[in-house]
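Still learning. Show one?

>
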Amino acid sequence: MSSLLLRLDALSKRYPNGTVALDRVDLEVRCRDFISLLGPSGCGKSTVLKLVAGLMPATGGRVVWSPSASLETRQQPISFVFQEPTLMPWATVFDNVWLPLRLRGQSREQAGEAVKGALARVGLDTFANVYPRELSGGMKMRVSIARATVTSPLLMLMDEPFAALDEMSRGRLNDDTLALWWAQGFSALFVTHSVYEAVYLSRRVVVMGARPGRVVGEVLIDEPYPRTEAFRSTPRYSAWCVQVSRMLRSDAGGA
């Protein structure tokens, strides 16, 4: 087992109007883990990511980073990829990827090699001087992923990043994400509504239920990496999808 990176300890979120978005969520994230959060709309998947990232305060529980996580060995502990690419339209692809390093005080020249490397890893090294309006939706998301990985994070938070893409683009980006995860060694918390995507990507699929948002079960996907398109056509893949789907339906039936 890899070492513990962080844990969610009875993490809860109640909004001022009384809505309970999360109710005592417990979860361990280990180094090099790939965890998908799967569940219906309104079950608090995105809220979990925002609380981990510190974008909003919890009203109960806490996020605890392991003392052995060695946060000082990385330029920053967390990167976030949102559902929309959120690129600056007036800036080139290079300058969009440079942004987090620029905010840390690195000049364009100092950040040059890191930015070029991040773009090469997502297959966009020849698009450095292009503007976002000239890119397809899938290419924009690749830029967003390059921007997130340029800081060599310990933890990558991904909130339904491929939901708006066609199936072919989504499949390619699933493969690219796994390749980056494998090469860079970060842990991933990935929010999705797709059973098929969750099973393909993950070591662990955490199923959440709504009203209130909570963890209702977990499935360990005991399949080796690297995973390829061939895995999707195996009986094992289908069996994992059935198991996860049954867990989702079981919770819906009890709601």
Residues 187 and 197 are 17 Å apart (CA to CA). Residues 1-29+52-69 form one domain. The chain is about 40% helix and 25% strand.
